[in-house]
Specification:
- The complex is a heterodimer.
- Chain A is built from eleven helices and 13 strands.
- In chain A, the strands form three sheets. In chain A, strands 5-6-7-3-8-9 form a six-stranded mixed β-sheet, sandwiched between helices. In chain A, strands 11-12-10-13 form a four-stranded antiparallel β-sheet, with helices on one face.
- The longest helix of chain A has 18 residues.
- Chain B is an all-alpha fold.
- Chain B has one domain.
- Chain B has eleven helices and no strands.
- Classes of the chains: A alpha/beta, B mainly alpha.
- At the A-B interface, helix 2, helix 3, strand 5 and helix 4 of A face helix 1 and helix 5 of B.
Chain lengths: 329, 268
């Protein structure tokens, strides 16, 4: 479905010293810098997969998305999406893809969303009955029936994002590229967008490529993760094995309403991390011993609350971003 | 090839453009009428001072009243042929807003061309209202309907040339941070060489001879003459403008092809 081979994109920019002096100097002499945003990238994505492209800011995720959609031209290497070379921007190719940009609106700002949708209906040559049916169904699922005739600029960010999703799915694309689709949204809107995408994928078996800084998006939607660090592929595998990169340990937190003694015998050999008041402790426990040690602590100390971490992927991402070398060990 | 679906795409794009224009209808009205009106009043006062109220005086074969008529037709022509501009295009490229258009299965130039046609229709109405205004003030003298119809048709023809030229300046945003300066240079140069400031009879003969091989005289001077009812051969202007249009289309194609390679889709 999507294959890349040694895909590389370099961006050229120039250095500029601050202030007027720097500006004048710049007119006569410019020091150009060529920086690879994506370097020697190999990837293979099958039909129907949902893949998360993860990585810190500036890692090259969005540059990859831009190359997949044909918005920018690769500097070298090959990229093929459904047999098309995206940068050639063949019309047949454009009819099969969709892109949702969380940071940029694709809808026309000064007209109601419905007008934009009608325009897209013509561009994608969607029969009227089919179009009406899709609008009705998606608007009901996203709960935006009342908002279709309101000017886009008057919608909230969450409402607008729902409209963006509708606009990008109206032509039933084979591949959907979602670039940070939940950025800046409140928790309810995030959840609503996630469940819509999940449902859409279930019913249509669409291939979905998603970038997001919210690990909850990844946890809820993706089975496969591709981690990009400094333009290169750092990891490519399942979500489950990604969570276990740092070992199969679980973090368990115990909470007390009184100050505890960290030197007590029950904490020996457990590498306990206490908060300043000694009322909360985090333990990293091997998965096999989780049950045994947790029961002991619950019996031997006055625990008022305890929980295991909800998103282990978040911890793994944090550790890998701070120290990417772990991946090469 | 022209098909019903293709017409549908253009028509819907034009309707969307009208919706967009109508959102800021007062701004748009000022944008269409404002610059042309200011330019007209500057010229009106300039020529009034030059003639100093002498109704018999002739400069380059023009009396004060025919000179004012020349510039009124220039004002109408500006609205009929020249109002659409590529400010948005340059900005869209610079701020990375053309990304969506690159994904839709409808060409970017077609989107802009359809918006241009929509704008022309709007401008046409404003130009007719202005024409009626000048006619009833008596400044314009008697109207020759045949000349008016021919002038309007010719104005539509050169509006396509203007669109191609403006599109090219917009595409320069792939290379330049700001494209407005290009447009200003182009505007001033055209105003002088096309007869928008002074009728071309005022220029020395050798300049007039050189200008006839450029598109300039056919952009303002010729259409004004058509509106004023002078019988002119249209072959030379149509052939010259068509030649420059073809050149402009090739230039735009090359700029687009090369520019896209530099496009970074900033801000996404």
């Amino acid at each position: 479905m999507i294959t890349t081979n040694s895909l590389t994109k370099n961006f050229k920019s120039y250095k500029k010293e601050p202030g007027l002096r720097g500006s004048i100097k710049n007119i006569f002499k410019r020091e150009y810098i060529t920086k690879p945003a994506v370097e020697g990238f190999d990837l293979n994505i099958k039909k129907g997969e949902i893949v998360a492209l993860l990585g810190p800011n500036g890692a090259g995720k969005t540059t990859l998305m831009k190359m997949f959609t044909g918005i920018i031209v690769p500097s070298s290497g090959q990229v093929q999406v459904m047999g098309h070379e995206p940068y050639k921007r063949n019309k047949e190719f454009r009819k099969k893809i969709a892109l949702v940009m969380g940071q940029k609106s694709q809808l026309w700002w000064d007209i109601p969303a419905m007008d934009s949708l009608l325009l897209l209906q013509k561009y994608y040559e969607i029969p009227k009955d089919d179009f009406d049916q899709k609008i009705k169904k998606m608007a009901a699922l996203l709960n935006v029936e009342e908002l279709l005739h309101i000017h886009v600029r008057k919608l909230s960010l969450g409402e607008r994002m729902k409209m963006e999703l509708m606009a990008s799915l109206i032509h039933s694309p084979d591949v959907i590229f979602l670039d940070e689709p939940t950025i800046g949204l409140d928790l309810i809107a995030q959840e609503s967008i996630r469940s819509f995408i999940r449902e859409y994928h279930k019913n249509n078996d669409t291939t979905i490529i998603i970038t997001s800084h919210y690990m909850a998006d990844v946890q809820a939607l993706c089975e496969r993760i591709v981690l990009i660090i400094d333009g290169k592929k750092g990891y490519d595998g399942t979500l489950k094995s990604f969570e276990n990169i740092l070992g199969s340990e679980k973090v368990v937190t115990f909470v007390y309403d009184t100050k505890q003694d960290p030197t007590d015998a029950i904490w020996q050999g457990l590498d306990a991390k206490w908060d300043n008041n000694h009322q909360q402790v985090d333990l990293r426990l091997p998965e096999k011993k989780l049950r045994e040690i947790t029961s002991q602590i619950l019996i031997q100390s006055p625990v008022i609350d305890f929980h295991t971490e909800k998103l282990p992927i978040e911890r793994v991402m944090k550790v890998l971003m701070e120290n990417p070398k772990i991946l090469h060990k | 090839m022209i098909s019903l679906k293709w017409i549908d795409k253009w028509w819907q794009t034009m309707k969307t453009a009208w919706s967009n224009y109508m959102t800021y209808r007062y701004n748009l009205f000022l944008q269409v009428v404002g610059p042309a009106l200011v330019f007209f009043f500057i010229k009106y006062n300039l020529w009034n001072s030059i003639y100093d109220g002498d109704l018999e005086l002739e400069i380059g074969g023009y009396t004060l009243s025919s000179m004012i008529q020349y510039h009124i037709w220039g004002f109408i022509l500006t609205m009929l042929a020249k109002g659409h501009h590529a400010v948005d295009l340059g900005q869209e490229i610079r701020l990375g807003r053309i990304s969506s258009y690159l994904i839709y299965p409808f060409n970017f130039w077609e989107f802009h061309a359809a918006s241009f046609v929509a704008f022309q229709a709007y401008q046409f109405i404003v130009a007719l209202i202005s024409l009626a205004f000048f006619y009833y003030t008596g400044l314009l003298g008697p109207l020759n309907i045949e000349a008016l119809a021919l002038g309007i048709l010719y104005a539509q023809f050169i509006s396509i040339f203007w669109f191609i030229l403006q599109f090219a300046t917009g595409l320069m945003a792939f290379w330049l941070e700001e494209t407005w300066i290009l447009r200003v240079i182009l505007e001033i140069m055209t105003a002088f060489l096309s007869g928008a400031f002074f009728p071309l009879e005022i220029y020395p003969q050798f300049i007039q001879n050189i200008l006839q091989y450029t598109p300039f005289p056919y952009l303002t001077y010729y259409p004004i003459k058509i509106f004023m009812g002078e019988e002119l051969s249209l072959w030379a202007p149509i052939l010259t403008i068509s030649f420059w249009m073809a050149l402009g289309i090739i230039l735009n194609y090359l700029l687009w092809k090369r520019g896209l390679k530099l496009y970074t889709a900033a801000g996404m």
